[in-house]
Amino acid sequence: MRKTYKALFWSSFLFLAMWGFASCTDYLDKEADSTISDDEAFKNFRNFQGFVEEIYNCIPDKEKNNWTSSWNWGDDEMFNTEGDWQMTHQVDLGNFWSWQTNAGVWLNKNNADPTSTDKFKHGLWPHAWYCIRKVNIGLANIDKLTAATKEERDLILGQLYFFRAWWHFELMEYFGGLPYIEEVLPSSGTLNLPRMTYQECADKAGADLRKAADLLPINWDNTTTGQQTKGKNQLRVNKIMALGYLGKNYLWAASPLMKNGAQTGGTKTFDYDEGYAKKAAEAFGELLALVENNQTQYALALYDYKDIYNHVPRSNETSSFSEIFYTTGKNWLMPGSTEAIFRGPSTDYNGSNWNTTKTFGPKVNGLVEHDNIIHHPTANYVNFYGMANGLPITDPNSGFNPAQPFKDRDPRFYHDIVFDGFKYVNSTMPADMEFLRYCSLYTGGAMRSAANGSRTGYFIQKLVPHTCNKYDGTYNWNSSLHTYLPYMRLADIYLMYAEACAVLGGANGKSSNFAKTAEQAINTLRDRVNAGHVNASYTSDPKKFMNEVRRERAVELSFEGFRFNDLQRWLLLTEYPYNVKTSHEFNRLEDDAFYKNNDPRNARVANLREVTILTRQFGTKHYWFPLKISDTTLYPEFPQNPGW
Questions:
Q1: How far apart are CA 563 and CA 557, in angstroms?
Q2: Residues 462, 555: Cα–Cα separation, whole Å
Q3: H or E element: which one contains 528?
Q4: Before 313, cis peptide (omega within 30)?
Q5: Nearest to 364 by CA among 438, 449, 473
Q6: Helical H segments across 123-273, by residue range
Q7: How far apart (Å, rounded) are the C-alpha atoms in residues 173 and 536?
């Protein structure tokens, strides 16, 4: 049994298909040589749920899957030069093959193990095919669940349908249309599973997600079954998660790439499939109506800070925006706040201190310890952060002043971005290190080295606080720092709802089951952070409004791993200015004393200019990742993606 299990796991799905019925009982084995019959494994809810729990364990942790990890592959981020081996830079080079071998990538793991709680042993490709097969085994055995209530049976079925769609969808985002596996593949016979189109796969996933949404409760704590694990059900799949992915699945199917196919030129970037967009809007509308009628456990996290630079909320009794991504001083509380909808497990919470939390700040003189790897926000991406009045900085009426480029920006700029003059260290420092207390990110500054500082003129502190440094020590054990990047959160739902509705009716577009228009959905997020509403000059033009929806998505979801897939599905991955990465160069006009006594956002600079660091040379093939050659050579109905 164990020999068969290992062989099944280490293979990808095509090799899996050649084997017999995979044992579903190994996960439930009590001793090395013991076995449990299928009848026992599936006969009651407790046993069947144990079978399902392994699927949760397989969800990759994007941030902590390696000592240093990479998950932002759009125009949003780059690494310092020592991080050129990371997937972010390999994508810049057009080397999309790197997903198969790059240690810092969550897409693939050669040592993947579905039973392990080691965050380094979980990858999308191997676990997806394993879990899809596991789901189909569960569905094939559902009639053996005889000692169960209807509620228990519905919970099992809902989870299985959700996960079959979720794993397929995650693969489809990167590889396009694939075979949609809905049965346990036989042990013999000729393999001829055809690759479907993206939209054909989306239809299959949509059917599964609709079933899941109809079977699952909003909150497991409010079910008889869930009472047994009350207070520990936050990660269990529910109706809101299923509706969220139902909408996302259809919005992706509606997107320009999926409707028109890979192409360059950008002429089709606003050409959506309205049929799929309407389905997406209805799914999101159903979800948001439940949320805004207070029928769910989800709400937008509060964005109310008495010290924005240090992420200090006005009240410690409420969950803050920062806590969507990390928590400190709360006994390693799982991040997510009230807003995270779908997350995987994060069992090695203290692993945050050895990976993610030491890869965002300057390495100059060991200010941030450990590996010499740094995530940098690109200057071109920082430009998406508009002004507090809601206008983009490129708008002539925005009030943006290149002589004071950090003044009056969107409030999220001050939460997310570390800029010149920012007080990086709060605690006591040795006298010879004092020059690093305030960020020197002007051209030629102490923190502008491409090797151990910022290549772009900025650092990121949205996902990890700047106090993760040698002297403030937030990444030390006594801070109980826990980081996690959610796969889906409520703000994303508002953004996707706005996009789907904008396809149907511009700024005034809306679903039939939710009161807000696309414009109002965007303004809901801006109200949360006290930023200005979408200006009338943008709401009157459908294309200009869609660009504002996209800009809002860039700002709100910055550095959370969505940007590459957005540029991809919008047919903008190959297009200028989305194919360049830049820095901001400028001269300081203020003396050092200014930053000790004044808010750095008010600093004056001179000669602000944007300099291109690199330009991506992408073609149509880069809209999809290459499949493994070992899989595409097994039978002709499973071809490689074009161009690879």
A1: 8
A2: 11
A3: helix 518-529
A4: no
A5: 449
A6: 124-140, 150-175, 198-215, 239-254, 256-260
A7: 34
CA geometry: angle 280, 286, 290, nearest 5 deg: 145
Whether 464 contacts 356, CB under 8 Å: yes
Q: Are 414 and 321 in contact (CB under 8 A)?
A: no
CA separation for the pair 526, 421 (Å, rounded): 26
Tell me which residue of 272, 321, 339 sits closest to 549, measured CA to CA.
Answer: 272
The pLDDT tens digits of the residues spanning 479-520 come to 999 999 999 999 999 999 999 999 999 999 999 999 999 999
Q: Which of 612, 558, 588 is nearest to 420 (CA)?
A: 588
Distances from the Cα of 374 to the Cαs of 349, 475, 611, in angstroms? 21, 15, 20
How far is it, in rounded angstroms, from Cα 603 to Cα 405? 8
Q: 615: which strand partners?
A: 580
Instruction: Report the distance separating Cα 643 and Cα 626, nearest Å.
Output: 9
pLDDT tens, position by position, 147-206? 999 999 999 999 999 999 999 999 999 999 999 999 998 877 777 899 999 999 999 999
Give how far Cα 410 sits from Cα of 171, 398, 633, Å: 34, 11, 51
Question: Would you state the structure tokens that stand for residue 295, as one six-digit string?
Answer: 């029928």
CA–CA separation, 171 and 153 (whole Å): 28
Element (H, E) at 632: helix 629-632
561 phi, psi to nearest 5 deg: 95, 10
Give every CB contact of residue 245 below 8 A, 6+ residues apart in sequence: 162, 165, 166, 169, 209, 342, 488
Name the β-bridge partners of 483: 326
CA distance 644 to 640: 7
Tell me how far apart the terminal alpha carbons of the chain are, to the nearest angstrom.
38
Please say whether the beta carbons of 257 and 570 come within 8 A: yes
Instruction: Say if residues 640 and 629 touch (Cβ distance below 8 Å).
Output: yes
Give the span between the Cα atoms of 545 and 70, in whole angstroms: 31
| 117 close to 414: Cβ distance less than 8 angstroms | no
| Residue 173: closest CA among 618, 598, 488, 431 | 488
Report how far residue 114's alpha carbon sits from residue 482's, in angstroms, rounded to the nearest whole number: 23
- CB count within 10 Å of CB 329 equals 12
Give yes or no for a contact between 115 and 35, defined as CB atoms under 8 angstroms apart. no
Instruction: Note the maximum CA span of the chain.
Output: 77
What pLDDT score was predicted for residue 36?
54
Beta bridge partners of residue 377, listed in sequence order: 77
Distances (CA, A) of 593 to 433, 588, 590, 599: 16, 12, 8, 11
Alpha helices (H) in 238-392, listed in sequence order: 239-254, 256-260, 274-292, 379-382
Mean pLDDT score across all residues of the chain? 93
Under CATH, which number does the domain 2-237 receive? Answer: 1.25.40
Strand partners, 587: 606
Residue length, the chain? 644
The DSSP output letter for 527 is: H
For residue 256, what is the enclosing H or E element? helix 256-260
Does residue 328 contact residue 465 with C-beta atoms inside 8 Å? Answer: yes
614 forms beta bridges with 581
| 8 A C-beta contact, residue 403 and residue 606 | yes
Beta bridge mates, 376: 78
| CA 5/CA 23 separation, integer angstroms | 7
Which of helix, strand or coil describes residue 482?
strand
Are 456 and 582 spatial neighbours (Cβ–Cβ below 8 Å)?
yes
25-39 pLDDT, tens digit per residue, is 332 222 333 345 667
The sign of the CA dihedral 399, 405, 407, 409 is: positive
